[in-house]
Write the structure tokens for this entry.
Amino acid sequence: MDPLKSFIYGALLLTAPAFAQYPAAERITLYWGLSANQENGRARWELTLVNQDTVALPASGWTLFFNFMRPIDAQSVSPMVRLTHINGDFYRLEPTETFTPLPAGARRTLTFESLGPILKAIDAPTGFYFVFRDTEGQALPPAPVRDVRILPFVSAFQTQSHPADQRPSPTPALDYYQNAYLHLLPSETLIPVIPTPYHLSRQTGSCQLDRATTITYEPALAREADFLAQALTPLLGTRPHLVEGGEVQKGIRLQLGTVRLPDTGQQVSSEAYHLLIHPATGVTITGSDPSGVFYGIQTLRQLIDPSQYRQASGAFSLPAVEIIDAPRFGYRGLHLDVARNFQPKDVVLRLLDVMALYKLNRFHFHLTDDEGWRLAIDGLPELTEIGGCRGHTETELDCLIPSYGSGPEAGRLPGSGYYTREDFIEILRYATARHIEVIPEIDMPGHARAAIKAMEARYARLKAKGLSESEAAAYRLIDPADTSTYRSVQGWDDNVINVCLPSTYHFLEKVITELQRLYAEAGAPLRVVHTGGDEVPHGAWSGSPACQALMRSEGIQDPAELQPYFLQRFHQILRQRGLRTAGWEEIALVSTEENHRRVHRPNPRFRNEGFLVYAWNNIWGSGAEDHAYRLANAGYDVVLSLASNLYFDLAYTKHPEEAGLYWAGFVDNDTPYRLEPFELFLGPLYDWLGRPLPPERFAHHERLTPEGQRHIVGIQGQLWGETLRTPDRVFYMALPRLLALAERAWARQPEWSQIQDSDARRQAFEKAWNEFANRLGQRELPRLDVVYPDASYRLPPPGAVVENGYLKANVALPGLAIHYTLDGSEPTPASPRYTTPVRLEGHGEVRLRTFDTRGRGSRSVRVVY
């Protein structure tokens, strides 16, 4: 349909309901509600259509499209409609011959059953839109349904995933008692830096800096000096004067030199620093290398009390202190998925700022997946024109189908979007200036649907222009004669590239060559390319004539063996260009059947190939909890990316309104802090139903050997993008968990993890976490409020009870303000602040919220008395 005709149809739908035979989509309300999670592992739910228009919804001529992240049993659906799974999480609903018109003002409820439990509002179907047909049977432009309402989760049938589910849903009382061991500490007793420095010695007095401050630096530190000057400008009201070389009187000096750890005398050659703040001589930062100087600068920034930013007096003070510091792990990473839901460049830049402040040094950039290709590649415009676009389509030659509620309107965030060459180069330069290495992920051979569809569109375009088959198919990623059938974990039946085609490797060579050009132009290091390599569904390639021919020539018996064949070839492409191959743990594991269960063991084939392996599957109770240790002990370099501790797309808690996934459990602020990389099996541990896992459950799991320890190269948090539909949601899910990740990646092994007695270890952990939680609540979150106010971190709701006529409240991060009301209204920063128990008279309700220093509030909680 041409644009003019689309506009006319849209205008008629919106402005002339008397003409239209359908109600306006804007006047249809959808109610979604969970009925129950059933013992058979299914969830039963209802969708109610309410017609608010004056025109009936007819018995035929319309289709309702939507996204839903779980498989729906089409046979369970009310017989008046027909449900069809299109692909991925995309469905369509059409009336059957038994559907009668839905009159104006009427409602109708449809029932469904889907696989897996549902516990949260964010699990609801999303992205609803109608496609109506005119009297000639032509499809009218899609019409989004704007009014979709989620009914509350109130019964045990809705808040329990299974009758055996022992995980309670948070309540104000439960939160209050769980927070009971936390208490406010005097601010002067807190360690003033996150992550905790290796050595910190407080001195007497303070150092005053003002607008006359000069920064003196060695020539190799010009970039670091410029960064520091920019960071101090908001405090001083002017940019500090920079001087290359020479001496400075009571200013700041940046220099390179030897850094030795005070207790061992060991010299640290990388990323270490010595920071000395003296009332008389000023500030000296000595780094083992420029990275060390940069991290010393970030520590200096954290020593500035957040209140001094608000004063903006043109001067500030620093406590006299000596810090000698070096990281525990060389790899300290954060992963961001922009393929599922795109995040604009400014969001990425701010995330890099926060990473740098807390000394993270690897940004794992998940640029491609089934639902989107987000990086412009010269010579392959379809990758972003088609693969970077989602919207309503019947052919996918113009864009991809909607996913994760992105809706029918092509070109709109968060479904559509990509980084131009200029955008990506700016990101690379920004990261490099902050000593962050950007590791791009080109996910293959599974998770590749966006690339596949883009290259099919390219093929069709070139064939239509009259090019030969070989020219048009130069970068084609599928065998058109392939009859293989499969279904990926995310529901796709066409997301695996064909690894038997020369054009597949031609495509990879092209993409890697262009990547190297981008990095070279940015002046950024490209050392590692992450190849994905995970979740290739069973059945891929089994019906491909091209693969059958290749298997005969290569002596391959099982189509599953084509995955390591592909990995070896991709690895060769990277190695020839001086690049290291990285991937999720699947690239280094082989699967065998043992005692009627599937067992994964390290693949000896790639042990000496230099792979960097990201171990993610430690779901408690699954039997896979020791994958990381198996791989490290076998000689693979491993980045701990463990789902149960480090997947920041997982919900903080079980509360129905707390957004996020939960297939691997819940990840609250203390969950990454609780992780000890060399002792993963420290308790208490619980399975996915909240049932305790006794230590003997792991008696036969592999432990980390001394040699294996040397192959644990670092840890990384993961921000998968399925539910990250806005920039605010990115920061909500990342923060403050990112700070606990930084602590575990940089700081020394915590003392509590070295205590053998479980009760003593628990007490030591609670003491340590209380101190760290105070650092968050009293210092670091207020700092983010003034330094990066658009990094909208999560505020934990208060815990509260009424006991003996008194309101008692607390918060998981001591130092955050709690405000309350007694009249049923929502608390604001102007409401009374809770400081001590409040006497209550009679009967009523209390509402409470946690607030940051900017006036942003948490979810409201309610206590009836």
